[in-house]
Design goal:
Structural class: alpha/beta
Helix content: 25-40%
Distance between the termini: 62 Å
Strand order of the largest sheet: 3-4-5-6-7-8-9-10
Strand content: 15-25%
């Protein structure tokens, strides 16, 4: 491999491990993303029915395939707004909702929850996003609650007053969305800048993060207001997969280990993957596997939380290579038992934060037409990683399938019945090929 790291060289490097990886990735997906299911079709007396025609079609995954919704209803023309929504819901079942304090509450005491709130770029009102997600059965994740960046101008100068304002902010969010949003990033990129009092990179401006117990204080406060949500710590690519990764001696790993030992209620680990500047360690599949092996020992769900894989241009070859690298990474991530979500960050080109748009890391072009990477992900989710069954049965139906939500169409005695059923790990028996099957009764 030459000294220059390019999309083409990264793909070739990935493929150089094919003799080991190809079979392993297939085994991992088979083992960790699929289960053995049993459906029993009974009458109201509990008797098995005879000659039931079954058509089972998977319509969504338990695994979270996600993307931020920061550009929902943000385009100046109707055509792109419609295309953005259609392309999103056609692939993704998980969405990131922005709760950045400066744009959520630019005027103190007047948070931009309602749909008719003043327009701010890349920050749709929360109700706009929630309405779209709830109409389309898309799960959500709030990002983020106690971030050490993007604070409102009206924030007070002293720590005690800042904490009082932050307490009020969390209470307002919880009252409106606490039982509607199941996941929240509590803190984000805590390890990036040494101290706020040294001004950092001018973006880090929440001075209470300099306090020794800041992480515990933040998670404890969020646990109080969001008792039914899962609370995540989200960290950058350098700290997760990149140059700062040192196995058990990585400072992200050691900080999590310390916090968990102290009883901090961290319930999930976020690992960003903004690979704008390609580096060998970011894209080395053996290194990625090692990261999951290491952090997986915490027993917490891992989200590959902010994925940006560049195409660098809209030239056909560049877009094709972006798609090839995306396919390889998704297969590796999807097969990891510890990984619960893959979250792309900016769906369309030219919608990223400030200068990040120069990398063309969207799945759609600026006009919202599909790039090869989008079609690759859609094909994986909709075709390769999808289960359908057709049979006529007089006994329990047994089959192997991907965990997810299914549409069940039944024909019995000339009458058709259509239902939705969830075949998830927690309601069918975790790792159910290793234990007794938990049969699901369908009563007709």
């Amino acid at each position: 491999m030459s000294n220059e790291v390019t999309l083409e060289s990264v793909v070739k490097r990935f493929d150089s491990f094919g003799g080991y990886l190809d079979a392993k990735l297939d085994r991992d997906i088979e083992e960790h993303r699929k289960g053995q299911f049993v459906l029993c079709f009974r009458d109201r007396r509990g008797e098995l029915l005879q000659n039931v025609t079954v058509r089972l079609r998977q319509i969504s995954h338990e695994f979270r395939f996600g993307c931020s919704l920061f550009h929902l209803e943000q385009f100046p023309d109707k055509e792109r707004n419609v295309a953005y929504k259609e392309k999103f819901k056609d692939v993704f079942n998980y969405a990131v909702v922005p709760f950045y304090w400066d744009t959520l509450e630019p005027v103190e005491g007047k948070p931009r929850f309602e749909k008719d709130s003043v327009f701010i770029s890349r920050r749709p009102p929360v109700d706009t996003i929630m309405e779209f997600c709830e109409e389309n059965a898309i799960r959500t994740k709030g990002h983020c609650l106690v971030y050490n960046s993007f604070q409102p101008d009206w924030l007070p100068e002293h720590n005690r007053e800042i904490k009082i304002k932050l307490d009020r902010r969390l209470r307002a969010i919880a009252e409106r969305y606490g039982n509607r949003i199941p996941d929240f990033d509590v803190i984000n990129e805590m390890l990036t800048v040494y101290k706020n009092c040294y001004a950092g990179n001018k973006a880090r401006n929440l001075q209470i993060t300099d306090e020794r117990d800041h992480e515990k204080w933040s998670f404890d406060l969020c646990r109080r207001y969001f008792p039914h949500a899962r609370l995540f710590w989200n960290e950058g690519i350098n700290e997760s997969f990149g140059e700062h990764y040192r196995g058990y001696r990585s400072f992200y790993y050691m900080t999590l280990e310390k916090m968990l030992a102290a009883g901090v209620p961290i319930q999930g680990i976020g690992m960003q993957y903004h690979a704008y500047r390609l580096k060998e360690d970011f894209c080395n599949p053996l290194r990625l596997i090692d990261v999951f092996d290491c952090y997986g020992e915490f027993g917490l769900p891992i989200h590959v939380s902010e994925v940006s894989i560049p195409s660098f241009s809209n030239e056909a070859n560049d877009e094709a290579l972006q798609g090839e690298l995306t396919k390889r990474l998704f297969k590796l991530w999807f097969g990891r038992k510890e990984c619960e979500a893959i979250v792309w960050w900016n769906l369309a080109d030219k919608t990223a934060y400030k200068t990040e748009s120069v990398y063309h890391a969207g799945l759609l072009r600026e006009d919202c037409t599909e790039k090869p990477a989008y079609r690759t992900i859609k094909k994986l989710i909709r075709e390769e990683w999808n289960t359908s069954v057709e049979a006529t049965v007089s006994e329990p139906l047994r089959f192997s399938g991907f965990y997810g939500t299914y549409e069940l169409e039944l024909l019995f005695n000339g009458e058709k019945t259509v239902r939705k059923i969830d075949l998830f790990r927690d309601n069918t028996g975790y790792d159910n090929r290793l234990c007794d099957f938990r049969a699901k009764d369908i009563i007709l």
